[in-house]
């Protein structure tokens, strides 16, 4: 798992550079800086199923795919709060997409389960959700750490809202692509695995050979 | 067939099951390694590699997709040595392909290797039969049985873990029935092929390379 979290930090690095270039192009001010943490990739534990979600208004929209990009159809999606309570449930459609109304502003752990032991999870951070929702337990901790916004910035945020939505869509698409790319089983991985098996065989021979020498 | 990371660790019963699974897998692996001698190491390595790669080959099937597990074949050829083969395959799948993870390694090894060992005892004799259709049948039965047993074990683990997974149990088994049929056909074909080309893999006599019709006649 260690190597995996390493990969994620690389991805988040990519995202920040992507975010940075978008910011440069559009000339949007600090508003975007405040809005972007919501779009930063969160710790999605990768499994056989890739889950990805983002927020639109008060709705959490997401998609679940298998490693090959095949949509996960008709699977149960559960939202779990940091306290471990179920705070929402839905199902994926034929394209693997799902939508869920957010009722609390807290971290949403989205579990997708196909019912046959295959599944995946994605954690949507509280910051991504609208501020007018009642706060869940974990959200407060994040909020204290965050500096308060200036009223002028709030006004600017409203005016830039349309721009933000476009950028949001683009980043969502980029993240889906990156996610798919990141989780695709690669030939190097497969060959690496087979190489390890050859190495383990060598070690097994070494010990069995040593045992044989002692016996003989 | 993997029980995925995080789902069992969420409940107290699940954590107990993870520990029990890890302990059982350790015992199985120890028995497997004890029975492993010099000549059988390459067999274990080849089948471990096959197991590692097989899970990547998805066959679209109706609304879902299934992949080969090969646990029946591992059982027939390796017996108890299926435990170390599955364990190594799963470790590498977790590291390279992010299937499963460290906490579920034990229980997943158990869920796939225990049916393999059961298939060894159930079908090894029949797989050595001199009659080709019977050898195929042994392979088919081993492949299919290993998947069904694995699904039953998965369902049992999910049910024992408690509350929200209980409903998934029967669905798990139903979802694996088509996979079991495909797995059976593949394992049956492999057994017949191996019997004709390298029968020593199954410690069996060479099967004559003739058409089944000739044998039937």
SSE topology:
The complex is a heterodimer of chains A (216) and B (217).
Chain A: H1 2-26, H2 30-35, E1 49-56, E2 59-66, E3 76-80, E4 86-91, E5 97-101, E6 108-113, E7 119-124, H3 137-145, H4 151-159, H5 161-183, H6 187-215
Antiparallel strand pairs in A: 1-2, 2-5, 3-4, 3-6, 6-7
Chain B: H1 12-34, H2 41-54, E1 58-61, E2 64-67, H3 71-78, H4 82-97, H5 105-127, H6 132-161, H7 168-197, H8 212-216
Helix pairs in contact in B: 1-4, 1-5, 1-6, 2-3, 2-4, 3-5, 3-6, 4-5, 5-6, 6-7
Would you kindly provide a written description of the structure presented here, covering whatever features stand out?
The complex is a heterodimer of chains A (216) and B (217). Helix content of chain A is 47%, strand content 20%. Chain A is an alpha+beta fold and 216 residues long. Chain A has two domains: 2-187, Carboxypeptidase-like, regulatory domain (Immunoglobulin-like); 188-216. In chain A, a hairpin with a 5-residue loop joins strand 6 (108-113) and strand 7. In chain A, helix 1 (2-26) packs antiparallel against helix 5 (161-183). The two termini of chain A are 42 Å apart. Chain B has one domain: Arp2/3 complex 21 kDa subunit ARPC3 (Orthogonal Bundle), CATH 1.10.1760.20. The radius of gyration of chain B is 17 Å and the shape is globular. The termini of chain B are far apart. In chain B, helix 2 runs antiparallel to helix 3 (71-78). In chain B, strands 1-2 form a two-stranded antiparallel sheet. Chain B has 217 residues and is mainly alpha-helical. The model of chain B has no long low-confidence stretch (mean pLDDT 85). The longest helix of chain B has 30 residues, at 132-161. The A-B interface holds A 1, 3-4, 45-48, 66-68, 70, 73-74, 78, 84, 86, 111, 113-121, 183, 185, 189-190, 192-194, 196-198, 200-201, 204-205, 208-209, 212 and B 1-7, 10, 36-38, 41-42, 44-45, 48-49, 52-53, 56, 58, 60, 63-65, 88-89, 92-102, 151, 154, 158, 164, 168, 171-172, 175-176.
């Amino acid at each position: 798992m260690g190597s995996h979290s390493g990969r994620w930090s690389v991805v988040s690095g990519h995202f920040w550079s992507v975010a940075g270039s978008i910011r440069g192009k559009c000339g949007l001010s600090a508003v975007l800086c405040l809005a972007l943490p919501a779009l930063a990739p969160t710790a999605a534990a990768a499994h056989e199923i890739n889950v990805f979600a983002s927020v639109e208004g008060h709705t959490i929209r997401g998609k679940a795919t298998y490693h090959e990009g095949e949509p996960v159809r008709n699977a149960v999606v559960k939202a779990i709060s940091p306290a471990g309570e179920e705070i929402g449930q839905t199902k994926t459609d034929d394209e693997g997409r799902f939508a869920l109304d957010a009722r609390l502003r807290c971290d949403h752990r989205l579990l997708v389960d196909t019912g046959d032991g295959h599944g995946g999870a994605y954690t949507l951070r509280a910051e991504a959700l609208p501020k007018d929702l009642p706060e869940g337990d974990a959200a407060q901790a994040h909020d204290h750490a965050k500096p308060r916004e200036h009223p002028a910035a709030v006004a600017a945020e409203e005016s830039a809202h349309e721009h933000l939505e476009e950028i949001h869509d683009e980043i969502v698409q980029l993240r889906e692509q990156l996610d798919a790319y990141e989780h695709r089983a690669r030939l190097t991985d497969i060959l690496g695995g087979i190489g390890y098996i050859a190495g383990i065989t060598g070690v097994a021979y070494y010990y069995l050979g040593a045992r044989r020498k002692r016996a003989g | 067939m993997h029980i995925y990371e995080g789902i069992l660790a969420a409940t107290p019963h699940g954590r107990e099951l993870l520990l029990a699974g890890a302990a059982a897998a350790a015992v199985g692996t120890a028995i497997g390694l004890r029975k492993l001698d010099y000549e059988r190491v390459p067999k274990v390595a080849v089948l471990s590699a096959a197991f590692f790669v097989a899970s990547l080959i998805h066959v679209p099937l109706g609304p879902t997709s299934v992949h080969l597990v090969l646990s029946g074949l591992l059982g027939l050829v390796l017996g108890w040595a299926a435990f170390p083969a599955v364990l190594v395959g799963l470790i590498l799948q977790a590291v390279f392909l992010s299937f499963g993870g460290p906490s579920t390694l034990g229980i997943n090894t158990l869920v796939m290797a225990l049916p393999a060992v059961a298939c060894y005892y159930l079908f090894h004799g029949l797989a050595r039969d001199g009659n080709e259709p019977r050898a195929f049948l042994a392979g088919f039965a081993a492949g299919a049985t290993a998947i069904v047993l694995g699904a039953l074990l998965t369902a049992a683990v999910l049910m024992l873990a408690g509350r929200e997974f209980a409903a998934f149990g029967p669905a798990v088994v139903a979802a694996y029935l088509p996979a079991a049929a495909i797995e059976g056909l593949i394992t049956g074909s492999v057994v017949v092929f191996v019997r004709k080309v390298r029968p020593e893999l199954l410690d069996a006599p060479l099967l004559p390379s003739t058409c089944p019709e000739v044998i039937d006649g």
